[in-house]
Sequence to fold (339 residues):
Amino acid sequence: MADKKADPMSLKGGSEAAAILLMLLAEDEAAEVLSRLEPDEVQQLGGAMFSVADVSERQVDGVLDLFVDRAKTRTTLGFAADVQIRGMMERALGQDRAENVMARITPPQRVVSLDSLKWMDARTIAQLIEHEHPQVAAVVLAHLESGIAADVLQLLDEEFQADIVYRIATLGEVSTEALEELERILVKQVAKSTSGSSSKRGGAAEAAKIVNSTRTTAEQRLIKALSKLDKALARTIEDEMFIFDDLMGVDDKSMGAILRGVENDTLVVALKGADSSLRQKIFGCMSSRAAQSIQDEIAERGPMRLADVTEAQKVILRTARQLAAEGTIMLGGKGDDFV
Fold:
C-alpha cells in the first residue's frame, strides 16, 4: 500500500503551509504575493519560512495537493476586476465616455500614505507629525491601530496630547482634500484623486482605544486635561474606555471594594442586563446571603428599561474608576506598569 502524503496542516499551522508554497515560487513571484499582504501577515509568513527550512518531500506534496484542491473551488472572477471592467467599458463606449462612467462607478481608493503608516514604527510617525497642526496629528492617529497610536501620542509634546485626543474624539468625515494634503505631508508625492469620497474615522470610541493603550499615568493626565476642554466628552471617552463587561478582569478583592461602594438597588438594575458569567463572578465576591437576596430581587423586578440598566452600570463603572484613581483597586489592562 502506498504511503499517504503528510497532511500539510500537521505542520504548526496554515501559515507554514503558505510559507512552503511561497518558497516554491520564483523570487519575483513571491515578492508580488507578499506586496499584497498586511504588515502582520508578512511578519507571520516570514517567520514561518524560517521554520520550514527542513520540510520533508511528503509535506511539500501535501501542500501542493491542498493548494490544487482549494484552487478548484475558486474562480478568477473578480481578479483584476478593475482592468477587466475598464476594458469592457472602453470597447463599448469609447475611451472618453468610458472614463466618465468609470469615474462615477469606481469604488473610492484607500489613501496610499495612510496605508503606508502601518509599516512605520511609532517614533518615525511621531517625527513626521510632531511639527504639524494637531488636526493633522489627530487624523493620522485615528488611522492607526490603537496600540501604535498610543505610542505615537506619548512621543509627542505633552502640551498638545489632550488637544489631539479631543480632536480624535470629535473627528467626523475627513475630506478627500485633507487626505491628499496628508499624502503631501507624509510621503511628499502627488496623491491619486479620489474625488467625491471621504473617510470616516475617529470618534469617542477611537479616542478611548488610544487613551486606553497609554500608560496609567498618561491616561489619568489625559482624562484630566480633556475634562478641562470638554467635560461631557471626557466622560464619554471614559465610558468607552472601561465597559461593564470589563469587570470580568477585576480581581476578587478589587471587586469587593467596588461592591461596597454601590447601593444594592443600583446593583440589581445593573446586573439585570449583565452576562451570566459576570453575574456569577460578582455573586462570588459577596456573601451567599447577600448574593441570594440580589438574585431574588432581580427575579422579582421583571423587565427593566435598557436606559435604566445602562445608567446603573455607568454608576458602578464610575465607582470603579474613582477607586482606581485613588489607588484603592487595580482595574488591570496596563501590563507595562509596575511598582
In short: The two ends are 64 Å apart (CA to CA). Strands lie at 173-175, 198-200. Confidence is low (pLDDT under 50) at residues 1-6, 189-198, 333-339. Residues 252 and 285 are 6 Å apart (CA to CA).
